[in-house]
């Protein structure tokens, strides 16, 4: 079970499918926060006010299609994971176009009996990306602390030679940490 809390926006118009998908997500994610919408306007509102970690969308909706939903999501947050869960994609070209348009994947509704196994790896990928972002955010915070310390040391320099030497040694030590951190960034 995924223990990282996930905010999921589900774009679906079939009440029966919504209930089945919600039940499946709750088997996969310990603390999901799920909002359900079925059109572009409501999707836009939830993208702004709910800020999901992932969007799961049907392709064929009453007032729009899944590519329009995907485009809306990408206009607001281009990096947001997007998964199609649909009965419409029976055309290989259309399926390929959804991936080329930026969807992370798609699951056919004809495989709803296997939804848990098909959705699990996609949601794990979402969690992994969230963890990577958090790790990078901490890494950047550490670099900012080192830079702030350098500025503080520079501000504390005075005319006493021995104290200046100590401060310069501290600056060099922090700069070497900063350079190592940047080399680690290139390996990611």
Instruction: State the helical fraction.
Output: 55-70%
Strand order of the largest sheet: 2-1-3-4-5
Number of strands: 5
Q: Which overall shape is indicated by the principal axes computed on the Cα atoms?
A: elongated
Structural class: alpha/beta
Low-confidence stretches: 179-188
| Distance between the first and last residues' Cα | 27 Å
Beta-sheet strand percentage? Answer: 5-15%
CATH class group of the largest domain:
Alpha Beta
CATH architecture of the largest domain: 3-Layer(aba) Sandwich
Report mean pLDDT, rounded to a whole number: 80
- Domains counted in the coordinates: how many? 2
Element-level helix/strand string: EHEHEHEHEHH
Fold-level CATH name of the largest domain: Rossmann fold
Oligomer kind: single chain
Under CATH, the homologous superfamily of the largest domain reads Response regulator
User: Main β-sheet: number of strands, strand sense, barrel status?
Assistant: 5 strands, parallel
Radius of gyration: 23 Å
With helices defined by DSSP (H or I, 4 residues minimum), what is the helix count? 6
Task: Describe the 3D structure.
With 188 residues, the protein is of the alpha/beta class. The protein folds into two domains: 6-132, Response regulator (Rossmann fold); 137-187. The chain is 60% helix and 13% strand. Strands 2-1-3-4-5 form a five-stranded parallel beta sheet, sandwiched between helices. Helix 1 (15-28) crosses helix 5 (115-155). It is elongated, with a radius of gyration of 23 Å. The relative contact order is 0.11. The model is unreliable at 179-188 (pLDDT under 50).
């Amino acid at each position: 079970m995924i223990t990282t809390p996930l905010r999921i926006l589900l774009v679906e118009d079939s009440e029966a499918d919504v209930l089945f998908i919600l039940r499946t997500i709750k088997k996969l994610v310990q603390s999901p926060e799920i909002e359900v919408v079925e059109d572009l306007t409501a999707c836009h509102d939830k993208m702004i006010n709910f800020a999901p970690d992932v969007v799961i969308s049907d392709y064929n909706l009453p007032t729009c299609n899944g590519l329009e939903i995907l485009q809306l999501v990408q206009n607001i947050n281009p990096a947001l994971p997007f998964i199609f869960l649909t009965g419409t994609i029976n055309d290989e070209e259309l399926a390929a176009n959804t991936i080329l348009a930026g969807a992370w994947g798609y699951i056919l509704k004809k495989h709803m009996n296997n939804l848990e196994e098909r959705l699990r790896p996609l949601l794990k990928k979402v969690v992994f990306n969230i963890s990577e972002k958090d790790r990078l955010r901490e890494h950047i915070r550490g670099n900012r602390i080192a830079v702030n310390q350098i500025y503080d040391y520079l501000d504390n320099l005075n005319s006493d030679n021995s104290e200046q030497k100590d401060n310069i040694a501290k600056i060099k030590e922090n700069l070497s940490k900063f350079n190592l951190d940047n080399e680690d960034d290139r390996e990611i």
